[in-house]
User: What shape does this take?
Amino acid sequence: MIRLNQLKILPGQEDKLSSHVAKALSVREDEMIQLNIVKKSLDARKKPELFWIYTVDVELKSSANFKRVFKNKNVSSAPELKEYQIPKCGKTPLEYPPVVVGMGPAGLFSAYLLAKRGFKPIVIERGNDVDSRIRDVEDFWQGKPLKPDSNVQFGEGGAGTFSDGKLNTGVKDKDGRNRAVLKIFCAHGAKEDILYDGKPHIGTDVLATVVKSMREEIIALGGKVLFGHQFVGYEVKGQSLKSIKVKNLSDGSVADIDTNVVILAIGHSSRDTYEMLYEKELPMEAKPFAVGVRVEHSQDYINRTQYGAEYKERYADSLPASPYKLTARAEDGRGVYSFCMCPGGFVVNASSEEGRLAVNGMSYSGRNAEHANSAIVVAIDEKDYGTGHVLAGMHFQRELEEKAYELCDGKIPVQFYEDFKENVQVKLSGDKKAKDTQDLQNNMSNDTEEKADDFIHSIKGLYAFSDVTEIFPTAISKAIVDGMETFDHTIPGFAKENPLLCGVESRTSAPVRILRDEFYQANVRGIYPCGEGAGYAGGITSAAMDGMKVAESIIVQFCPKM
Assistant: This one.
């Protein structure tokens, strides 16, 4: 098997990959036995000239002229890909089935590996199954009451189910877990292009079917999934876990489940669980996170800035909706950056607590909505949320979400950037005549009304115009403006296109980290903090990989009780 790097193909010619490979290798197509795509990414550095850059592995017939093949400087022997293997079980019988709390990526993958090794895990998920959950979320976006335990944050698949489904990660993958996550997704319904796409994504619509399929396999292997059940406590004997307490949310009853192992894959929005763990004195520490707004632009504008003004004429429909990634430093030194960018997507009401409002971004697999959105967030830490209390960051998130909710009585507060910037400048000057909510709602110019109509179909959930600066301390609002103005130099017009800002983006990551040792256990033996909610991941793939690591730690120590 040989590897060909840096193969350039024009957009729209991907179906001719085989002939391009043969030409680059100076062989006939019938001399190629097998062709595997290793990586595919778009080179837009010299726009409007764009190219797909491929890395491919090729198996050739023995009759091929290998001397001629290796004259190409981009050809080498293909390295051996390390195939991930679930480790073998240890020798200590596990008296009771392991319990996994939470069915987001971390919980789902830890349960999946445990089931594969015969442990028959019990999965506790406070939210509903994905089909019921989709109906609950759609109803909420149409104006029906929030279901605090079945929403964008809680339910089968976790918060990632209602997202863009981005699968890229910066986590090092010497053990092959990253590729294993992608292959498992493919085995359960995802398209195979996620195995080689430079920026892989699944999309909300496909993720829903994937997580359902994984759940069905866990059950087929002897596992059990309890939807509508919440982890509310645990009992310890000596320094080891004895049992957990689980509340049936349909009737309010609480039952004990005997277990020696519980994986806490609780997700970053399980605030009542954080409070319970704090009361139980399970060691935690505060950690930095970021807050800000969602910003919306026309996807066509983003495409023009990233692909060139004539991208439509040159490449028709052969290019995907373009993403972007931006970083800046505010005047006061704070980091400001784009986060969870959703090409061709929607801003969604991602609330999970009554009287509090949070937003997120979401794309379907086609990424074909008219607008792009991204969080523009500001890094914050203890200097922003004050007290040394370990849950102070969580309290700060709640305060912002309460302000966002109150601004428009539960509707998403939105504001065009020019008004947001003007109000920040007014507040910094000490002038109290900032545009108030009534001004924004009643005195909008014709141009503003026209722009507002353009964005109606890019928001999932009810919204209203308001003064979004009222959500934040002025220093954070100022940092958002500083970032936007810097981004305008990187992507011309980014601030001057007068994009729509939606507040508040407050769930970028967990505000705490639940401490664990090198064996992934807390100070109580048998409790395994895991994933994004425990402070050890930052996205679907990294959370899934952390779930795998925790499951592996359990597997190598124990074996299922016969």
In short: The two ends are 44 Å apart (CA to CA).
